[in-house]
Amino acid sequence: MSSPEIASLSWGQMKVQGSTKTYKDCKVWPGGSRAWDWRETGTEHSPGVQPADVEEVVKKGVQTLVIGRGMSEALKVPPSTVEYLEKQGIDVRVLQTEQAVKEYNALAARGIRVGGVFHSTC
Questions:
Q1: Element at 115 (helix H, strand E)
Q2: Where does this one sit in the cell (predicted)?
């Protein structure tokens, strides 16, 4: 099962191939995607993305996880989250969201089992 392409990105809106939904923030993995609701884990811009935010994507068997920090990189990614992923043998890429989407799509096009969590506003 391949990772779906992120078909479009603009401020506050993302569309993922294979889904009819428009996401503000989303999680993607080989074979699927869904809205990323920060309230599920109490996520805020700081301290930022926690292991609980990425665990669902990790469980899908990804080799690489791309984290989009927002258009202005307001969303933090603490070292503990990167360490959590690296300990599981996952290659982690933390980028500004537009760059993160480009990186994610390039990896998906190469057939890499890539997942991502993306913030599409600040």
A1: strand 114-119
A2: Cytoplasm
Domain total in the chain: 1
CB 92 within 8 A of CB 82: yes
- pTM comes to 0.97
Residue 56 pLDDT exceeds 90: yes
Q: Which residues of 35-48 are buried (b: 16+ CB within 10 A; e: fewer)?
A: ebeeeeeebeeeeb
- Token pair, residue 94, equals 């933390």
1: in domain:
no
Distance CA(92)–CA(114), nearest Å, equals 10
Taking only the tens place, the pLDDT of each residue in 65-83 is 999 999 999 999 999 999 9
Instruction: Tell me how far apart the alpha carbons of residues 98 and 72 are, in angstroms, rounded to a whole number.
Output: 10
For residues 62 and 70, the answer to whether their CB atoms sit within 8 Å is no
Q: Give the pLDDT confidence of 23-35 residue by residue, as tens digits.
A: 999 999 999 999 9
Q: Tell me the CATH number at 108.
A: 3.40.1230.10
Give the domain range for residue 106.
6-118
